[in-house]
Amino acid sequence: MLRGLSLNLVAPNFYCTSIMPESIKVMVVDDEPPAIDALCFLLKKYCREMEVVATASNPEDALVAIEEHRPQVLFLDIHLGNTKDISWLDKVGKVDFDVVIVSAFNDSMLESLKLWKSYYLLKPIDINEFLDVYERIVSDRNGIKRRGGKEKYLVKSRSGNFELQLSEIVRMEAEGSYANVFLLNGRNHCISKNLRLLLSEINDERFFRVSRSTIVNLNHIQSVDNNKHMLTLADGTSVELAQRRKTNFIKVYRTFIE
After folding, report:
1. Domain co-membership, 194 together with 118
2. Which residue, among 72, 30, 29, 77, has the nearest Cα to 51 in the 3D structure?
């Protein structure tokens, strides 16, 4: 059994299989060796296009390794021994890599938001949240997700094929291995695909998974209640924003509305 990250290992719906021209260089920084081992295990098992080129357990060794290996993604626990923040990253100069904050402390959220290209994972790591972050990194690095890209999604079913206008989708909710897609006109469609596959196929930055069971269209958010962790949508419904996804949501939503 892996220790250190206390992983919440629920089998994902599919492996990370994005085709990359070359491996994405990854570095893991944590002061607990079992945590490093556990994260390296996840990266190797589910994200085969990523390659761990270095690990470190303190800021000094991390700075040396960053200079030597030039990672493209840094998985980082903020609390490293007596070091309780990420100010040591200032010594790197230009931070031209993605940073994934991996921490059991919620105060790390505020620190992670100060980084230009950062993501957040709360310990114990949930495998689906881990894969969500992975897929967003890959998409962002490749410029896959574009606002104003394709506007229709083709749904194939036994009763016939039809197209959904992406701008008309308010939210998508899981129902077992199916997904219910709710539209602005009040209609909804049940699609025989799970949320992860649906989000991957639509592949549009307007859609964000706010909880294990719900994806929302960022264009149709009317209000955000940070205290109650609730979102009000254009169709009048309220959906929960999972605490574990709040930091990533805030960062993505702020960027989206700018």
Report:
1. no
2. 72
